[in-house]
Amino acid sequence: MARLESFDKLVSLSKRRGFIFQSSEIYGGINACYDYGPLGVELKRNVKQTWWNAMTREYDNIVGLDAAILMHPKVWEASGHVGGFTDPLVDCKKCKTRFREDTLPEENMTNKECPECGGELTDSRQFNLMFKTQMGAVEESASTIYLRPETAQGIFVNFPNVVDTSRQQIPFGIAQIGKAFRNEITPGNFIFRTREFEQMEMQFFVHPDESDEWFETWKERRKAFYDTIGIDPDNLRFHEHGPDELAHYARAAFDVEYKFPIGWSELEGIHNRSDFDLKQHAEFSGKNMGYRDPQTNQVYTPFIIETSAGCDRTTLAVMCEAYEEETLEDGSVRTVMHFHPRLAPIKVAILPLVKKGGLKELATEIKDDLKRHFNVFYDEKGAIGRRYRRMDEAGTPYCVTIDFDTLEDKAVTVRDRDSMDQIRVPIGELQAWLAERILIR
Ligand code: GAP
Fold this sequence. Notes:
The chain has helices at residues 8-17, 38-57, 73-78, 81-84, 106-111, 152-157, 159-166, 211-228, 276-285, 311-322, 359-370, 384-394, 404-409, 427-438, and strands spanning 20-22, 34-36, 62-65, 86-91, 98-100, 125-128, 132-135, 143-146, 172-181, 196-206, 236-240, 252-260, 263-272, 291-292, 299-300, 303-310, 323-327, 333-337, 348-352, 376-378, 398-402, 411-416, 422-426. It has 441 residues and is of the alpha+beta class. The protein has two domains: 8-82 and 149-319, BirA Bifunctional Protein, domain 2 (2-Layer Sandwich); 346-440, Anticodon-binding domain (Rossmann fold), CATH 3.40.50.800. The radius of gyration is 26 Å and the shape is globular. The site of glycyl-adenosine-5'-phosphate has 19 residues, from strand 10, strand 13, strand 16 and helix 10.
């Protein structure tokens, strides 16, 4: 299958079918901000639900959390973000374009010359990526707070609360999905790098002596996850960081990368964060962030194994993976999104061949029955071939057609999105037939 060569076709399919729109489009848009449309929101929710299930349903020792986006400003001092969450920034004095210094060719920095217009570049300065805002109505007395740049800190500061309330004992994990914000200097590549995005993070608290073993376990578990969302293993690669690549908090780090049209790029980071985070929060808050082992009474600061995935990036990878332009026998080309049925925004389309002769009524009855089980789409307008093509672009795995034979034999035609094969299925067996293929496969 030919792979996507750029994001352009995906951007236009997204707009055409309602996966992803430019934010505030009627005002000319806002750079690198996107809205998920009717199909996109279903797809993204399915990505999140699959991840949530893979964490909190699969493992008895992982619980969920939904922390506030706005946190006490001291959190970001303790975490190191106020002091160190920066990128080196240079401006062109002539055309005012901003660059991340580390992405510019070295000769431009040496000659201080802008690559776009030949203008002079400023010296580089550290630019903090956190969005600042004010909390409180009176500006003078309001305090500066930040939009969180990662969801992880909400988990760390709630560690004692979860220990006290959930009956979990180490080793255990806390999972969270939520928005994060970074004032990226060079956002772009569609939803790959944006300033507002969603993370799916899980922090796993372990005894320090067991952290290396758990790091290995989580590497394997996270590799396996991508299979459950239909990513071809050939399009995934795994990169272990060398000692000179490690972040200040990390003892070991491992990236999951996907072969995007822009090249291999990070989907997820897995880190052994040691006891850095809990010790920092203990120091800055003055609170006890330690753990007492109920069996041995030993008190210690747990190590944390973090798995941190981008939800939008995972959704983008799923869309790249699914996209195909298939040339049919008659020479025509159909665009089809081969989503894993678990992720498909619409699971079943109900298509009466025509509206007349009782077909509409019967199709509506079938739709009302199925919609209690799946996200169903009903469409009675236009030629059947056109309706199939529309569902191919939406990635709907099954189309159910109701025709005049249905009135006689009480069976429908089910068309498979990928093979385009059609078979007759009795109405009475339809729900079970679909469930077997959509929910279990
Ligand atoms: N708590 C660790 C942490 O936040 P990170 O590598 O900075 O680690 C984790 O971010 C994941 O979040 C990345 O692998 C990526 O998938 C996603 N991510 C980070 N910045 C992003 C951005 N500007 N736009 C979209 N996704 C982003």
